[in-house]
């Protein structure tokens, strides 16, 4: 193993619930991600995967009652969502929001300026944006369209990756970006992610299915059940899951392994 | 030379528009309203008897009408506190050099001369009660276009004025139309001869400077057959925290096949009661378009209307209102279908923030015989927080069977999910909110000449500043 260095992300004993409810969604989760790594987080519906993604980006709708999250050594939970983004955290949304009347170019120029703490002329930015659209095989006309309005499901997902590509995050969390994508779109998205892999950057790929991992090879696979990571391993774990289903992990958990 | 500093976001209204000049008016009437005040205005202007009689008659009508109580709260408006006529200077310029220095400085600061050089066909600038500057580019003058202040029109074009003045909005229409008719001063008179297309906008800028001032401009636009004109107005005032009153009357005659667009970006300070009557009549195949943006004022009551008098006439009303803390924007539009095969559309977009209240009030009236009339009304309200209020009063009266009328109303709140999405890309919370609002008013902004669209967006950004903790 390489010498010890500060992890990019360190989640320790995280407990999360909705403000008005008793039941916890995330129950004592631990996760450490270093620069250069790709982690896949798999799990059945309702296991808390998407909640983790939102909590990492600072969604105001959740209550963290215990635990800590360090991002590049700093307390992530004390930062506003925009501060997290400017520090290099990116979330590709499972359900990207529509913003009527706001063009992609106007929106992303502002995002670009904030992320890189710079001012850029509209015409200069436009050229940059077109390169990223092209990379994800999206037509240049998208630059002038309102954000996500009237997009197909696949276009929305691809546009998330356009944004990731443009904003060059240090840690990108992809929340079920693969769901609802046909095989061609999946390959385009995977290519977008693979082209960005670097020793300085890490990915947390949240998915329900093993399929996307055929195209994005993870270094680590974690299985999340009922709010915590119950198994971690290499890429082979994803294949095992695909074969045996989530009941396999569940039943192992309950100590009643199937014969 | 002062730059139009609309691009500077860091100043608030008080710094940008809320300044005032220490000028000594050459004449002003005593505080409050009386028959004597009405006469004094007319005498000071040296008006013909017919206009003086018109004023005095209107004054009687004003007295006879009760204060309207069906709309916003006007109980704090005290007619006795207002100064109805303030003449800042004896000079009226056709070049900015002729305008008294202090007053010119104000318009420099507001960027008007600069805009005129850049993209306007003509400019009128009114300061308190009188127009201090008026100019029309030569090429339009040569084509017979008239663009002067209305007082000048009474002197120089009495026949045209007599024929149309008070015909679209008669004094007895409502209490404030009567008030304006009694004490009116300034405003624009526009005449476009048949077939002439004034391709670049004419602009009027209205500035209230004095404390407790009333501004009562009177605008009359006559578009002859097949002509076109786009008239734009803007307005601001100092911040005094004492009420001022702006009560204008605008009358527009759009003859057969002509088209008039009238755009307002209203940005009065939050001391101003803005109670305005705007109405157009459209003849066969004519098009009248009102683009009405209300951002400032304490209370605004304004419902631009179009009377569709002959087949093929079309009326378009696009209204955007922003009601911030303490403001009540009671706006909308009226379409009166008085002939068959007439069409119209009202689109209203309002934004309420803090303790602000935005009301849509609209009337669609189809008179008997106006068969095949088509009308569509769409109201969108956006609430920025819990206390903000919005309401709609859509009146529809239909006296004809074969008509097509659509009405849609939506109220939405800015969703936390939207804000979170934008924030997760690095935008600060108030930037995210501002972006959502600018997207909401985009349908209006894209109707405006670029310079005005930019200004409107800046104004909204100013209003949005500090709207989140």
SSE topology sketch:
The complex is a heterodimer of chains A (about 260) and B (about 475).
Chain A: E1 9-17, E2 24-33, E3 38-42, H1 49-57, E4 63-71, E5 74-75, H2 81-86, E6 89-92, E7 99-103, H3 104-115, H4 122-135, E8 146-147, H5 153-167, E9 171-175, H6 183-196, E10 202-207, E11 220-225, E12 228-233, H7 235-244, H8 246-253
Parallel strand pairs in A: 3-10, 3-11, 6-9, 9-10
Antiparallel strand pairs in A: 1-2, 1-4, 4-5, 7-8, 11-12
Chain B: H1 13-16, E1 27-28, H2 35-45, H3 49-64, E2 86-87, H4 101-110, H5 112-119, E3 122-127, E4 130-136, H6 138-142, E5 146-149, H7 150-156, H8 158-164, H9 175-183, E6 188-192, E7 202-207, E8 214-215, E9 218-223, E10 228-236, E11 244-246, E12 249-254, E13 259-266, E14 272-282, E15 287-294, E16 299-302, E17 305-308, E18 314-323, E19 328-337, E20 343-352, E21 357-366, E22 374-383, E23 389-398, E24 404-413, H10 416-423, H11 429-440, H12 442-445, H13 450-464
Helix pairs in contact in B: 2-3, 3-9, 7-8, 10-11, 11-13
Describe the structure concisely for a colleague.
Chain A is an alpha/beta fold and 259 residues long.
């Amino acid at each position: 193993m390489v010498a010890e260095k500060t992890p990019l992300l360190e989640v320790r004993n995280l407990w999360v619930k909705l403000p008005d409810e008793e039941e916890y969604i995330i129950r004592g989760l631990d996760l450490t991600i270093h620069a250069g790594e790709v982690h896949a987080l798999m799990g059945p519906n309702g296991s808390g995967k998407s909640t983790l993604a939102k909590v990492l980006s600072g969604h105001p709708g959740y209550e963290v009652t215990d635990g800590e999250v360090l991002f590049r050594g700093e307390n992530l939970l004390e930062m506003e969502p925009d501060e997290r983004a400017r520090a290099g955290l990116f979330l590709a949304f499972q359900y990207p929001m529509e913003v009527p009347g706001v063009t992609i170019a106007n929106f992303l120029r502002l995002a670009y300026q904030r992320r890189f703490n710079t001012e850029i002329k509209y015409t200069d930015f436009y050229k940059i944006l077109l390169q990223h659209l092209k990379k994800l095989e999206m037509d240049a006309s998208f630059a002038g369209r309102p954000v996500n309005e009237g997009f197909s499901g696949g276009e929305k997902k691809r546009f998330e990756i356009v944004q990731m590509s443009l904003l060059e995050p240090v840690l990108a969390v992809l929340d079920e970006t693969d769901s609802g994508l046909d095989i061609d779109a999946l390959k385009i998205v995977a290519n977008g992610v693979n082209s960005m892999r670097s020793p300085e950057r890490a990915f947390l790929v949240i998915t329900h299915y093993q399929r996307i991992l055929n195209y994005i090879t993870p270094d680590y696979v974690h299985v999340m059940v009922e709010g915590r990571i119950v198994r971690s391993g290499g890429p082979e774990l994803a294949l095992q899951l695909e074969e045996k289903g989530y009941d396999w992990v569940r039943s192992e958990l309950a100590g009643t392994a199937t014969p | 030379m002062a730059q139009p500093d609309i691009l500077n976001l860091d100043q608030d209204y008080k710094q940008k528009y809320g300044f005032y000049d220490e000028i000594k008016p050459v004449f002003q009437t005593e505080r409050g309203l009386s028959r004597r005040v009405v006469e004094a205005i007319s005498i000071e202007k040296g008006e013909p008897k017919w206009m003086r009689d018109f004023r005095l008659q209107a004054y009687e009508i004003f007295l006879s009408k009760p204060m309207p109580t069906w709309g916003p709260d006007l109980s704090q408006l005290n007619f006795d506190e207002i100064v109805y006529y303030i003449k800042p200077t004896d000079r009226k310029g056709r070049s900015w050099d002729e305008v008294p220095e202090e007053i010119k400085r104000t318009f420099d600061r507001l960027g008007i001369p600069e805009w005129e050089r850049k993209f306007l066909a003509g400019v009128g600038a009114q300061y308190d009660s009188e127009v201090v500057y008026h100019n029309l580019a030569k090429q339009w003058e040569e084509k017979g276009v008239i663009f002067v202040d209305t007082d000048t029109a009474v002197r120089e074009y009495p026949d045209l004025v007599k024929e149309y003045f008070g015909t679209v909005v008669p004094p007895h229409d409502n209490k404030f139309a009567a008030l304006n008719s009694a004490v009116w001063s300034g405003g624009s008179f526009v005449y476009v001869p048949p077939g002439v297309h004034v391709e670049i906008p004419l602009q009027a800028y209205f500035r209230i400077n004095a404390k407790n001032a009333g501004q009562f401009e009177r605008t009359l636009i006559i578009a002859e057959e097949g002509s076109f004109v786009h008239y734009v107005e803007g307005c601001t005032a100092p911040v005094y925290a004492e009420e001022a009153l702006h009560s204008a009357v605008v009358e527009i005659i759009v003859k057969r096949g002509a088209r008039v667009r009238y755009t307002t970006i209203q940005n009065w300070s939050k001391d101003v009661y803005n109670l305005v009557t705007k109405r157009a009549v459209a003849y066969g195949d004519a098009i009248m378009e009102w683009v009405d943006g209300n951002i400032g004022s304490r209370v605004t009551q304004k419902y631009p209307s179009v009377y569709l008098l002959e087949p093929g006439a079309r009326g378009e009303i696009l209204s955007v209102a922003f009601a911030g803390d303490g403001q009540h924007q009671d706006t909308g539009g009226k379409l009166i279908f008085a002939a068959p095969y007439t069409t119209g559309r009202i689109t209203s977009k309002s934004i309420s923030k803090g303790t602000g209240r935005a009301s849509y009030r609209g009337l669609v009236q189809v008179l008997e015989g106006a068969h095949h009339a088509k009308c569509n009304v769409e109201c969108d309200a956006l609430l920025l927080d819990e206390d903000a209020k919005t309401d709609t009063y859509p009146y529809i009266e239909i006296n004809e069977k074969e008509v097509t009328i659509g009405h849609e109303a939506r109220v939405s709140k800015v969703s936390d999910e939207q804000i979170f999405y934008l924030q997760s890309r690095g935008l600060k919370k108030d930037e995210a909110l501002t972006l959502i609002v600018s997207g909401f008013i985009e349908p209006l902004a894209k109707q405006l000449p670029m310079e005005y669209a930019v200004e409107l967006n800046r104004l909204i950004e100013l209003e949005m500043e500090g709207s989140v903790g």
